[in-house]
Amino acid sequence: DARRRVFIFMAQTGSAPKRLAVLLSGSGSTLQNLIDRIKSGGLRGAEIGVVLSSRIDAGGLQRAKNHGIPTVVVDRKTTPDWEAMSRAVTEALMPFKPDILILAGFMCLYHLPPEWREGKCLNIHPSLIPAFSGEGMYGNLVHQAVVKRGVKVTGCTVHFVTNEYDAGPIILQKVCEISSGDSWEAVRDKVAVAEREAYPAAIQLLVDGRLRVEDGIVEIIEAP
């Protein structure tokens, strides 16, 4: 059926580490987690080739420099719209030839170029998509909405990125229970713990060629 869309991100045995480009806008806590996982061997077959920030004052830039990782800035304040921002980001990343793009608190709607749309870019969202997701749902706003709604569980979702907010195929989700009386800050901290495990795990699956996507549904292939 020509309408069925199937792709598998294939790892190559014995190949060089996959080059990650990490895109961020803030302190870089997700970046630091990935740096630590790679150094400890908890994330294998990958290296961070560049960190791109949408803000010149983002703390993540210094974290990258502390570890000798190249950095570039595409300042959101100097670009007129998301299309222009996206073009500038793509142009800035091209010289580094990234294999995988990792959105790590990147507070911009990045319109991926066609060659990077399938199996190339990941994001992590601090809720169980489709709940509390989409345009306007990000960061602490998510946790505040979770507490206000009174749900009993929340968590995080790692998904492939498309050109719509939080709409790409879901790779992994981790669940956190919400206790009676939890503040949104407490929920945030629980979700952060889940995120530190989920994102490296999803990246590892992608690096290892263990993700198959058919008609928007991700299947995790058993390890050989």
UniProtKB/TrEMBL annotation:
Residues 18-203 form the Formyl transferase N-terminal domain. GO terms for biological process: 'de novo' IMP biosynthetic process. Keywords: Purine biosynthesis, Transferase. Gene3D superfamilies: Formyl transferase, N-terminal domain. Its EC number is 2.1.2.2. InterPro entries: Formyl_transf_N (IPR002376), Formyl_transf_N_sf (IPR036477), GART (IPR004607). GO terms for cellular component: cytoplasm. Pfam families: Formyl_trans_N. GO terms for molecular function: phosphoribosylglycinamide formyltransferase activity. Pathway: Purine metabolism; IMP biosynthesis via de novo pathway; N(2)-formyl-N(1)-(5-phospho-D-ribosyl)glycinamide from N(1)-(5-phospho-D-ribosyl)glycinamide (10-formyl THF route): step 1/1. NCBIfam families: PurN. PANTHER family: PHOSPHORIBOSYLGLYCINAMIDE FORMYLTRANSFERASE. This is phosphoribosylglycinamide formyltransferase 1. It comes from Perkinsus marinus (strain ATCC 50983 / TXsc).
